[in-house]
From TrEMBL:
Keyword set includes Magnesium: no
Alphabetical list of InterPro entries matching this protein: FUR, Fur_C, WH-like_DNA-bd_sf, WH_DNA-bd_sf
Free-text comment on the cofactor: Binds 1 zinc ion per subunit.
Family to which this protein belongs: Belongs to the Fur family.
Superkingdom of origin organism: Bacteria
Protein name, entry field: Fur family zinc uptake transcriptional regulator
GO cellular component terms given for this protein: cytosol
GO molecular function: DNA-binding transcription factor activity; transcription cis-regulatory region binding; zinc ion binding
Keyword field: DNA-binding, Metal-binding, Repressor, Transcription, Transcription regulation, Zinc
Keyword hit for Transcription regulation: yes
Length: 169
């Protein structure tokens, strides 16, 4: 048996804090620009997702809010907050898992989003692509179709799970 390299927790933590800060700063910028309101309920849902850094279902969010505040919020209030966050591109929905993920990228709502989902560890990486945006726009134009949500979910193995699998053989 060989010892496995343990990921550096300190680095991971500072990265997570940076991602959290950039998500919240993006949200505040966007709301100021668009004249939208980041109400306490919307902010709380976004904070929970940004802190988690991985996809969460609506009921997981309710549980987390209940733990933090001692009160169970009504599901409808969570969904309403999520609708706002989705519509403004601050949160994405993973259809295959019916889960939500905070976005720190500050890209436009109409830009396509690609999710790389690891089947082994569940890590979800978000990527965007200008080239893909052009291709999808072209595809839509050819069919006279106006695309609204453009989310691609790709499952497979992340770098570290792929490397582990290769090492095990
Ligand atoms: Zn995004
Ligand atoms: Zn993985």
């Amino acid at each position: 048996m060989t010892a496995q390299r343990v990921p550096q927790p300190r680095q991971k933590k500072s990265q997570a804090i940076a991602a959290f800060r950039s998500t919240m700063a993006n949200a505040e910028d966007l709301c100021r620009r668009e004249g939208a309101k980041l109400t306490p309920a919307r902010r709380r849902v976004l904070e929970i997702l940004a802190e988690e850094g991985r996809p969460l279902g609506a009921y997981d969010m309710i549980e987390k809010i209940a733990v933090a505040t001692g009160k169970h919020p009504a599901p409808v209030s969570i969904y309403r907050a999520l609708d706002f966050l989705l519509e403004n591109g601050l949160v994405h929905r993973l259809a295959s898992r019916n889960a939500f993920l905070a976005c720190a990228h500050g890209h436009k709502h109409e830009e396509p989003v690609v999710f790389l989902i690891c089947e082994a560890c569940g890590t979800v990486t978000e990527a965007t692509s200008r080239a893909l945006h052009r291709e999808i726009a072209l595809l839509g134009a050819e069919s006279g179709f106006a695309p609204h949500s453009q989310v691609l979910e790709i499952t497979g193995l992340c770098r570290s799970c792929g490397a582990q699998k290769a090492a095990v053989g």
